[in-house]
Write a structure and sequence with these properties.
By secondary structure, the protein is of the alpha/beta class. It has 5 helices and 12 strands. The longest helix has 10 residues.
Length: 226
C-alpha cells in the first residue's frame, strides 16, 4: 500500500536484520555462496569448507549447525576471545570440524560465478582461504531508517524508549528488536513484540484524550484486512 495514513498512535515493530561485513564481493555473491541462514542453506555445502564470521552466540551456534553438513567450518573472529556464552564456546572447542581463527578480519569475498575464497587480514598480513560459503553473524542492525531522525536512538541505531515503550516523539512507540532496552529495565529478554500490546492497550490508553475515544474493534479489524 502507498499513500499517507493518519493515526493518533503508531507502533514501530520492524525488527532488525543481520549486519553485513561491508566488504567487496559480499553483496555480489549473496545467494551464490554468501548466506545468512545455516539451517536453510547448510545442506547446499555438503562436505565443503565454509567460513563463519563472528564471536558471539549466533556465530558459534550457527557454526555448530553447519558441521552437520560441511566438511570443515572456519570460525573467524577479529578478537582474541569469544563473547559467546561459555557453553557455546565449549561446544566449539569440542567439535573437530571447527577451526578457529582469532585476530582475523575478512577483507573481501572472491570468486567467479560462485564464492571460491575469502581474503583475510591476520594482523601480520593477508591470506586467501578457499571456502564455498560465507556466513556472517556480527550483530544486528535495527530496521529504523524510515523513522524520523529526530527520534532519539542509542549508539547502535535502536530507538530509545521509556518504561512504557514510548519514544521521544509523543505517540510513537517501539517494540521488539528495533528498540534498545530501557536502562533501568530488568536484564531479561522481552517476549515477542505482539506480547507488548498490554502497554499500548493499557498504559497507552490513558494518554489518549477522553474526547477522542478509541475506534471500535470491528472497524479496526476491517481496515487491517483490506
Amino acid at each position: 500500500m502507498t499513500g499517507s495514513y493518519h493515526a493518533r498512535q503508531v507502533i514501530v515493530a520492524s525488527g532488525a536484520k543481520l549486519k553485513m561485513l561491508g566488504v567487496p564481493g559480499e553483496a555480489e555473491f549473496e545467494g551464490r555462496g554468501v548466506s545468512k541462514c545455516a539451517d536453510c542453506d547448510g545442506p547446499m555445502f555438503q562436505n565443503e569448507t565454509v567460513a563463519v564470521i563472528g564471536g558471539g552466540d549466533s556465530a558459534l551456534q550457527e557454526a555448530g549447525v553447519l558441521t552437520h553438513y560441511c566438511g570443515k567450518v572456519l570460525l573467524i573472529h577479529r578478537g582474541t576471545a569469544f563473547s559467546a556464552q561459555p557453553r557455546f564456546v565449549e561446544q566449539v572447542k569440542a567439535n573437530p570440524k571447527i577451526e578457529v581463527r582469532f585476530g582475523s578480519t575478512v577483507e573481501a569475498v572472491l570468486g567467479d560465478k560462485m564464492v571460491e575464497k575469502i581474503r583475510v587480514n591476520t594482523g601480520s598480513g593477508s591470506e586467501e582461504l578457499a571456502v564455498a560459503g560465507v556466513f556472517a553473524y556480527i550483530g544486528l542492525e535495527p530496521n529504523a531508517a524510515f523513522v524520523p531522525e529526530a527520534v532519539k536512538r542509542d549508539a547502535t541505531g535502536r530507538l530509545v524508549t521509556g518504561d512504557t515503550l514510548e519514544t521521544t516523539l509523543p505517540g510513537l512507540w517501539a517494540a521488539g528488536a528495533v528498540r534498545c532496552r530501557t536502562q533501568n529495565a530488568p536484564p531479561k529478554p522481552w517476549p515477542r513484540a505482539c506480547s507488548k500490546g498490554r502497554y499500548f492497550s493499557g498504559a497507552g490508553r490513558p494518554m489518549l484524550s477522553r474526547s477522542q475515544p478509541s475506534c471500535p474493534r470491528r472497524r479496526s479489524v476491517s481496515m487491517l484486512s483490506r
